[in-house]
Amino acid sequence: MRRVAVAVAVAVTAVFAAAACTSGNPPVGPSGTSSSTPSTVRVTPGPPTTLRVLAGSELADMQPILDEAAKATGVTVKMTFTGTLDGAQTVAEGRADGVYDAVWFSSTRYLETIPAARQRLASSPRIMGSPVVLGLREPVARRLGWDRTPVTWSDIADAAKRGEFTFAMTDPAASNTGFSALVAVASALEGSGRVLDAAAIERVSASLTGFFAAQRLTAGSSGWLTDAFLRRNLGADPGPALDGLINYEASLIAVNRTRKLPEPLVLVYPTDGVVSADYPLTLLAGVGDAARTAHQRLADYLRMPDVQRAIVERTARRAALPGIALPPGLPDGLVELPFPGTRSAIDALLTAYFDRIRRPSRTVYVLDVSGSMAGARLNALEQALSGLTGTDTSLSGQYCRFRSREDVILLPFNQTPGKPLAFTIDEQNPQPSRDAVRTAITGLRAGGDTAVYDSLVSAYKVLDSATDQDRFSSIVLMTDGESNSGRSLADFQAFVASRSGATPVPVPVPVFPILFGEAAESQMQAIATATRGQLWDGRNGELAHAFCQIRGYQ
């Protein structure tokens, strides 16, 4: 990076000091015991052991270091990747018991607000850290003066409200980066230094609305968001360039290291604080002695000074141990903002964000009701979609439900596209609107052939005809077979390509196909690729889960 906007932070006491990336104090795990590892500890190989770890997907870049750890310690790590909220629900419901030995997320702070999850967490040594910050294209940072002067979250929110820059951020219910950013800006704007509660969230809602008026792209994963940001700014996708990207500091540095952008991103560190990932390698309570010993050997190895330096060099994350140099050019002494300490505060913040603060969404659900869907398959579709109307009361279900101000459009199809059924979820009293959507879903009837591509074209036309275009727009396709009527895949791909030549160029609308039954995977992947969406698998009883996961991209 050629420039870094450095905030000279005043030392303050953070409520969750253990989460601060630059703190020299050892973090305390749920059991209350210190997780520090003295630099004099020598790690010796033990018996070959596999440690089963449920992890955040961004930790895939740790694999080379884990490979070296296996040689040094005898501990082979088998990681299964999942999202933050799904991981929390898996632990809280006991579905991780006996399946995994440890969890490794960017933070366990959300898990610790859920009693059923907290009681399943044991020792939790911190391995590394990375604050969530704003990366701005260099010309934009220079125009705003943020490449050379200190900036607060209030400054950023005011500029966003005035339309002086745009940004991309992940969905805070699906991804830790989005939630960390939401907590940081809300806490900083509230300004008291205390942990957020429902009353504080109400006080800053108007300012938060101004900040999020500048958000132009959302996603359920940091990796997908970064790829979409790069495509837009490199001209690979139609639509205006995006000025900023909110992500982990390490991920923004990785973008700069690729040198794909014509100018580097300037990292903006607000002087009033950040929320950081601290990546604790958390042992699950109740595991056997072999897993417990393997976890300790692995954690000791990863916290050795030489290994900590390797983590800094290879991943651009900050070391957990004091005295290890930061990645070149990065500021020290960041203020760590307090994290909400209760589920009620977290729920209040997320509810306010989805129902009142962020730009609302508009989604067309293109639903196969051809003859092959009759019976059990149509029942499965009705049950899965109905979960979004409030019938799913699980931890993830409450954040997947349709949100206030959201436009929900059902487009059933067989050999021809059906009549779109449009609903807007009422802002003041949302549940009757959700009930109306559920009534329409349960009224679907199966019969006829399958015109997938004609129906997708119809969905685009529905979105293009909307008078209010200031929304996050997407299309969800659910089909159980191949298209056998109307346009071909090649015709649809040509249609999508023609949109990029339209005047004015429309904002990209991704299609998220869901595999079901005998749906042709290659065709569904081609649809996702052509529209810059993502393919989801709803087979093997996963249909409801797929619909819920896609919500992070809407």
Written overview of the protein:
By secondary structure, the chain is of the alpha/beta class. Helix content is 37%, strand content 16%. The chain has 19 helices and 18 strands. The strands form 3 sheets. Strands 1, 5, 6, 7, 8, 9, 10 and 12 form an 8-stranded mixed beta sheet that branches. A 6-stranded mixed beta sheet has the order 15-14-13-16-17-18, sandwiched between helices. Helix 1 links the parallel strand 2 and strand 3. Helix 16 runs parallel beside helix 17. The chain is globular.
Helix content: 25-40%
Characterize the quaternary organization of these chains. single chain
> How does the overall form come out from the CA principal axes?
globular
Q: SS-based structural class? A: alpha/beta
* Number of distinct beta strands: 18
- Percentage of residues in strands: 15-25%
What is the overall number of helices? 19
- How far do the termini sit from each other? 32 Å
Query: Low-confidence parts, pLDDT < 50 over ≥5 residues?
Result: 1-40
